Amino acid sequence: MKLLGISGTITGSKTRIGTEKVLATVQNSYDDVTTELLDLKDYNVQFCDGRNPLTYTGDTKTVIDQVMSADFYLISTPIYQASLTGALKNLFDLVPPSAFRGKVIGFLATGGTYQHYLVIENQLKPIAGFFRAFVTPSYVYLHDNHFNENREITDLDALSRIDHLAHELVWMQRQLKS
């Protein structure tokens, strides 16, 4: 089983750090799960223009193929202006909805206000519903205060939620496969 962690931003580092933490927990706990990180910052992804997703080339094709080949997902985004990033929205527009259908998705978000966790409930979960994906009941929201000056996650509650989400993702994926 392949878990793809998507860091859905082209700026900053906290979203990637949170994503890597969940992926590391899964990798260290489950021998039968491989993890892969897709950091949108590392790719020059074209804007979706409505064409068939299979006709894109270069980095855009690479990213689409990575998403389509995964068995389940951790999708992460910083919250800007009370919304997910444009880079992540563009990815959702590029990938055929069928790529997510019947697969498990967990969410992680980062932000500077405690109210921004609502974006997961009010925007990300409905998008997953449109894709007909299965969403983990738990998610992780990381506030700036959960990180120390070295950008390490130090908040014990946040670390506990990361651990819980990692195990919940694998548990749900296994239940659906059995």
UniProtKB/TrEMBL annotation:
NADPH-dependent FMN reductase-like domain sequence ranges: 1-143
Enzyme class at the top of the EC tree: oxidoreductase
GO molecular function: oxidoreductase activity
Gene3D superfamilies per the UniProt record, alphabetical: 3.40.50.360
Enzyme Commission identifier(s): 1.-.-.-
Source taxon at top rank: Bacteria
Keywords recorded for this protein, A-Z: Flavoprotein, FMN, Oxidoreductase
UniProt protein name: NADPH-dependent FMN reductase
Species whose genome carries this gene: Paenibacillus mendelii
